[in-house]
Write a structure and sequence with these properties.
215 residues, alpha/beta, five-stranded parallel β-sheet, 7 strands, 48% helix, 13% strand
Length: 215
């Protein structure tokens, strides 16, 4: 049997809860980011979106195919504006709002299990997380990982396995939480338990099934 179900009966087996970031620990509004970048570059939102996301350029950053400096330089070239690191960070920051309820649950979980973050992003996100989402550091410490540092991106099973190796945790001892079905499927293929985040209620139910949440 390959992969793992989020609803499998488990008791005291999970040692790590691994969280995605965007639309799990924070609400991410790409449109806000695109609008700010378009204003800086003096171009249209459609042009920015096409240059960065529709073109596949962002995936080059997420997968570590581009180092941070090359990613930032290429980003500016594509939108036709000499984008500074500070402006890139500010655009990203404006698009993120902490999910207080999810962060509260993460805080409760860390009393009994390890917690960490694995997000599909360039290393710039981890490097500047204290500006982007300062609520994460007190909860997760240094365990905030971007896919780029593992030279691949979710849903590639290697992304999860390399992250777990860094965390010294086996796949069967980890529960992964992501809003995207493809990333949940990738985690299960890598041998992790996984839950697709659609609501607070379903997440609490999944945690309860794993014996991780006690009211």
């Amino acid at each position: 049997m390959s992969g793992r179900s989020a609803s499998a009966a488990v008791s005291d087996a999970i040692k790590l809860v691994l969280f995605d970031m965007d639309n799990v620990l924070c609400a991410y509004d790409r449109a806000t980011r695109v609008a700010y970048l378009a204003e800086l570059a003096g171009t249209t939102r459609e042009a920015v979106h096409a240059a960065i996301w529709d073109s596949g350029f962002e995936l080059l950053g997420d997968s570590g195919a581009l180092e941070a400096a090359d990613y930032l330089g290429g980003f500016g070239e594509r939108i036709g504006y000499p984008l500074s690191l500070e402006e890139w960070v500010e655009a990203r920051r404006r698009s993120m709002q902490p999910d207080r309820a999810m962060l509260d649950i993460a805080g409760r979980l860390r009393n009994t299990v390890d917690i960490a973050v694995l997000t599909n992003n360039t290393t710039l996100v981890a490097d500047h997380i204290d500006t982007l989402l300062p609520e994460l550091r007190p909860l997760f410490g240094s365990r905030i990982y971007t896919s780029a540092q593992f030279k691949t991106a979710k849903p590639d099973p290697q992304c999860y396995r390399r992250c777990l190796s860094e965390l010294d945790t086996t796949p069967e001892a980890a529960l992964f939480v992501d809003d995207l079905a493809a990333n949940v499927a990738g985690a299960r293929k890598a041998g992790l338990f996984a839950h697709q985040h659609t609501s607070m209620e379903s997440f609490k139910q999944a945690l309860s099934e794993h014996g991780l949440l006690r009211e």
